[in-house]
Specification:
Blueprint lengths: L1 H30 L6 H19 L2 H12 L6 H19 L2 H24 L3 H21 L6 H5 L8 H23 L15 H15 L6 E5 L5 E5 L2 E6 L6 H20 L15 H15 L3 H14 L9 H7 L17 H17 L7 H13 L25 H20 L3 H6 L4 H10 L9 H9 L6 H14 L3
Parallel strand pairs: 1-3
Antiparallel strand pairs: 2-3
């Protein structure tokens, strides 16, 4: 079967070549493309997407994968997992008819434009009917592809394979039981002063500072680059070409800094995947939750820690000496970790952030169950923001219309953001056990051992292990919210002198 497996890998690599060409066109659209290029760019992406899909569900290729699956016991673990994961993807793709794919695409296209119109008008009612169509076709998709316990799992599986609603319910019950109570205690404390972050920070200096931070994290600029885009993102075409983008607000130091560190964490994961497995599941990230764990670990557990700024305070002061005059590492550490409820998810601190995700999870699940209707969903949204964050939503643009995910049809995506933070806390706790004096190393500006640990325990495996299997392999147990709460309590008791 060696020859047959080699043919299988060759086909997957050709498909991957096409998909990465699509990604390159997407990167260019965000970074370089002139305004008038949009129409033909959409056509180019559609053409390549069709070719990729046709190759993947080609009857002959499906037959070849089926034959390999029958003989999977003859293969080693990595090869066996590659076969199983591709067979699973083919099964799902084959269930969706061409008619369904076209209808789904048209509904998403309509929803996106209605969302843009509704945002501009601050009026959810403009988007309401399109969202209903989108929810209805997602319900249909759940029934077509099938699920075991809950329809939401059929959508969730695209982003976090194998995740179960029962497990997410337990996690978010912990968020409600523990994190809400802890945040209320913080709210009772004297608020920290973050005025040093709100001064004028010149764009050019922020840019140079961000490049330096990425280098210090271990990002390989010979295998990547950074550019400016409206929304920061990471894209990859191979482990040897992983690109990040950032955005810069001259009145907010944190906007660029945290996007650099966050996207840098994603990029380090992609640069650490095995090049020899290019195009195969074993050469791809296992899930969005694990991917997010890498960005959140660098952004929060490392980048918002006191040791990190003990190492980098002289660097930031070199670029912004006047703005940070008289500000030492401890004061800076407190400023960057200010906790306060906010309306907008992407502007939230790392604790209240999970209430934003909790709200979206409850709404998405309720829409699929029929508990909630799109008719008055903005009212439900506003009630939940009042309940969980204690804030009043002034208009629909700052409320239910703030995210693009639903307009893109991405229902089931949001939980991976919280999963990433929870995995990050658990992984970082294990790294501290296994790397002697880790935080002292970070304090000295030495991040090599941590990156080496992540490469060894997470990056090298690609999708060979599921998220839960990987977590158990690394920490000896499945995902456990207690690690996040232990991390949060220790850190924020120091920030707020509790």
């Amino acid at each position: 079967m060696k020859k047959e497996y080699q043919k299988f890998t060759n086909t997957l690599r050709k498909i991957s070549d096409i998909n990465h060409a699509i990604s390159l066109l997407g990167w260019d659209k965000e970074v370089n493309m002139p305004k008038k290029g949009a129409a033909f760019r959409s056509q180019q992406v559609a053409t390549l997407s069709a070719i990729s899909h046709e190759m993947f569900v080609d009857p002959q290729f499906i037959k070849e994968v089926s034959e390999l699956l029958k003989n999977k016991k003859k293969f080693k673990l990595k090869e066996r997992k590659n076969i199983e994961l591709i067979a699973k993807r083919q099964e799902r793709s084959s269930k969706l008819s061409t008619d369904f794919v076209i209808r789904n695409s048209n509904i998403i296209s309509e929803a996106y434009h209605k969302w843009l119109e509704a945002r501009a008008a601050k009026d959810y009612s403009i988007f309401k009917d399109s969202l209903k169509k989108l929810v209805d076709i997602k319900k249909e998709e759940c029934e077509i592809v099938g699920y075991k316990d809950h329809p939401y799992e059929a959508l969730l599986d695209q982003y976090e394979p194998g995740a179960k609603v029962a497990d997410l319910d337990i996690l978010f019950a912990d968020v409600k039981a523990q994190l809400i109570k802890f945040c209320k205690k913080i709210d009772e404390q004297k608020q920290v002063d973050d005025s040093c972050l709100k001064k004028h920070f010149p764009k050019e200096k922020q840019w140079d500072f961000g490049l330096e931070i990425l280098k210090r994290m271990g990002y390989d600029f010979d295998a990547g680059r950074q550019d400016i885009s409206p929304h920061p993102f990471t894209t990859n075409f191979a482990p040897t070409d992983v690109r990040v983008t950032t955005r810069i607000d001259e009145k907010n130091f944190g906007s660029m800094t945290w996007s650099c560190i966050h996207e840098g964490g994603h990029a380090l994961y992609e640069q650490g995947l095995p090049s020899e497995d290019y195009g195969l599941p074993s050469g791809r990230a296992v899930s969005l939750g694990i991917h997010e764990s890498q960005s959140r670990l660098w952004e929060n557990n490392v980048g918002r820690s006191l040791p990190f700024w003990e190492a980098n305070m002289s660097l930031v002061k070199k670029y912004f000496p006047k703005n940070l005059k008289g500000v030492g590492p401890e004061k800076f550490f407190k400023a960057i970790n200010k906790v306060s409820p906010s309306l907008i998810r992407v502007e939230s601190d790392e604790l209240y952030y999970h209430f934003h995700i909790l709200i979206r999870y409850e709404i998405e699940k309720g829409l699929l169950e029929g508990t909630y209707s799109t008719d008055n969903l903005n009212e439900i949204w506003n009630e939940k923001y009042k309940e969980y964050l204690g804030v009043k939503v002034p208009n629909d643009t700052q409320g239910i219309l703030q995210d693009i995910h639903w307009a893109y049809g991405s229902i089931g995506y949001f939980p991976t953001y919280s999963l990433g933070s929870f995995y990050a806390a658990q992984f970082y706790a294990q790294a501290k056990k296994e790397i002697r004096g880790l935080e002292k190393q970070i304090e000295r500006g030495e991040n090599e051992k941590l990156l080496e640990w992540l490469r060894k325990n997470i990056h090298q495996y690609g999708s060979v292990y599921s998220s839960e299997e990987l977590c158990k392999k690394i920490t000896g147990e499945g995902l456990n919210f207690k690690y996040f709460m232990k991390y949060a309590r220790k850190k924020y008791k120091a920030v707020y002198d509790m």
